[in-house]
Amino acid sequence: MRVLGIDPGLTRCGLGIVEGDIGRPLTLIAVGVVRTTPDLPIPQRLMQIEQGIELWLEEHRPDAVAVERVFARSDVSTIMGTAQASGLAMVAAARRGLPVALHTPSEVKAAVSGNGRADKAQVGAMVARLLRLTEVPKPADAADALALAITHIWRGGAQNRIEMAIAKAAAGRSR
Amino acid sequence: MRVLGIDPGLTRCGLGIVEGDIGRPLTLIAVGVVRTTPDLPIPQRLMQIEQGIELWLEEHRPDAVAVERVFARSDVSTIMGTAQASGLAMVAAARRGLPVALHTPSEVKAAVSGNGRADKAQVGAMVARLLRLTEVPKPADAADALALAITHIWRGGAQNRIEMAIAKAAAGRSR
């Protein structure tokens, strides 16, 4: 299973592709960040993020997409851009019929490090270890995107299958 | 000038098309709401909103798009969906090269009613009067979308032209 993890953000949107299955070794396929500059209007910045995500979906053909779940109580100064980028990520995946799962930061920390309150450094170190990398991926957004993809693989996509089944049932009802 | 006003929301996204120019009568072209049901997963709901907006852009070919500016201090229970829908609206317009302007709720209230603290009923009544309608458009999201389009026409798209010039200059610099 090949998963694209997305750590949404307006200034830096982390992207990471990991391949693997439960109980089998994980492989890093690609990692990077889409950056946008604050001197552009928001619609143009959001469009650049969408284009970046589209490019990765096109090039790496993941089987599923895992996006960080954003909460309204998060940092107020960046929350709007983060929410908007996460919406674009979800729709880009949904448009291709790909399952999309949302994982909270604590779920991701718990999955990769065994501690839901792990700090950025611990998460980065575990991601590097799990993917057998000699260095921690930088910036933190890139490491977080990989951690999201790993979490998704380890959770076995069960959440996806449930949500897709619900969606299918709901679509059937509304017909 | 033909403007699509969008009042973003996950459950109800208001859309309204108004044609007119500063100092000339306004004409209602179309008004409606894209609704999504909470029993679908968020990615599917956001995709339906995007498809609704795309359909309106395709069918009504507006010259500009006006979206309500969402603030992080707004209602926490709906803020994430509202932010995500507003991001999709902005990107749908930007993808077509259309100017996008954001107007705050107080700017819209002040523009259509002369009072930045006008209530929903006052805004609806003024929208109906300005567009010579016999009834106030319902639901409130539809009336708000029309109020956004009217605000945009009356502001003469000046904000747009400034933002587009900045974007162009910035794009030139980064080349």
Question: Would you summarize the structure shown here?
Answer:
The structure is a homodimer of 175-residue chains. The first copy, chain A, is built from 6 helices and 5 strands. Chain A is of the alpha/beta class and 175 residues long.
What does this molecule look like?
The structure is a homodimer of 175-residue chains. With 175 residues, chain A is an alpha/beta fold. Chain A contains six helices and five strands. In chain A, helix 3 (105-113) packs across helix 5. The first copy, chain A, starts with a strand and ends with a helix. The A-B interface holds A 37, 39-44, 46-47, 50, 70-73, 76-77, 79-80, 83-88, 90-91, 93-95, 100, 102, 163-164, 166-167, 170-171, 174 and B 37, 39-44, 46-47, 50, 70-73, 76-77, 79-80, 83-88, 90-91, 93-95, 100, 102, 163-164, 166-167, 170-171, 174.
